[in-house]
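Posted in: Protein Modeling Q&A

I'm a second-year student putting together a small comparison for a lab meeting, and my supervisor asked me to include a predicted structure for RagB/SusD family nutrient uptake outer membrane protein. I've never done this before, so apologies if this is the wrong subforum. The sequence is pasted below exactly as I got it from our records. If anyone can share the structure token output, I'd also love a short note on what stands out.
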Amino acid sequence: MKKILFFTLITFSISSCTDYLEVKTYGKAIPKTSEEFSALLHTHLNDIDYGADHVLIENASALVSMESITDNFSVALTMPAGTVLPKYIGDMLGGNSGSNKQRRYELLYAVVRDANIIINNMPSVEHTDEQNVMGTAYAMRAIAYYHLLREFCEPYESDEQLGLPIVRDFDMEERPLRSNYGMTRTFIEDDFKSALSFAVSDEIYRYTEDVVKAYQTRFYFWTKQWDKAAPLAKEIVSDYPLAEGQAYTTMIQARNEKTGNVLFRSYLFPGNQDQAFTDAQRVIKTRPLTKEFVDLFEERNRDIRHALYFDNKRLTQKMLSGKVRSAEFQLVLAECYAHLGQHDLALEAVNTLRSMRIANYVDYSLETLPAVDLSALIKVDAEGKLLTPLMQLILRERRKELFAEGDRFFELKRNGRPTFWAASNGLKYTTEEYMYTFPLPRIDVELIPGLIQNEGYQF
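Accepted answer (user: helix_wrangler)
Welcome! Here is the predicted structure, written out as tokens:
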């Protein structure tokens, strides 16, 4: 029988139900000019630039929460100063924690609300500044829905499975029910296309054409549209060539600079989040990495990531900051080729990445690939097929390359949702299959008739 997760009572009142979709009229008004609409966007963009807790890209605190509960880290070896760290994803699904996923749902829909205000009310998109505002609004709405899809819906199997409530218009009375996955997917795809039609190039809006293409690639990849993700990933890597050597080290450890092949990042500027940033870098060092993860770096000191990412006590050294960089898309390209049956191209893509991380690297051939490790946590790929040696290599390289960048939990979700557990203080904390899909807010389910909660949750 599937386990049921019980939540502490959420303490806000009935009147606050879905207020993240509303704009009260107490001295407030819908913007009218392009400058006012632009100001609405820059409220969000400034939070990203200064590393505030924003839902569209992780700051250091959010990365600590999502990284520390994966199989890369050893809960049992956590030092006393690490008691603030969650032990497993169940600690983050309800209650009053800052990483509460039900609150995240609300905040993502608040981004949708602000984007809808612009999309529904901009009187003109004739001038370049107006086109930049409209393109950014569509981009932010598409990316917010991509995050909602990845976190609050199960991995894609069919268009008929549960999708998301689609809010197209700014309407304070609208409380839609969940659409199916196919309708949600089409809506997000159309928003990405709309965002790209405005070809935003002004860096001040952050979501430039290249950044939107990167998120569009992530969306196609998550929804298993390999034939659409592959050419976009190839274009990104061509435009943002992979870094190596000292350039790679500088890029990974940069505190505020968007250097190397980084397309988009948080913490562009120092500011009032500096202490939270410092605290996050400190607390992640209180939970050592697992030996199993460290042993994946078989080339040891020949792999630049080995000393860059952790020390000899298995403590994290990599700088935690949300970013989008081209190495991810080199790995997307490799996996898409593998799913499409183009195994030679897939191996070439992953060999290219490894050659830029490992000194004196000798390419693998399809015949020399290591055998599949049957003890590994991930046993099937995104299509539900048993891992091949090639797919295992691609997934291992992704696990290593994107360590501490918020990727691992969703890799586990995408590839079979394996059950695993952590031990602490004599108790066993199990990440069950259903926990990979987060619960909709309790208050919404109770007060919106017909709104379906995700499987496995009971309040």
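A couple of things worth pointing out for your meeting: The CA atoms of residues 213 and 232 lie 7 Å apart. The first helix runs from residue 34 to 49.
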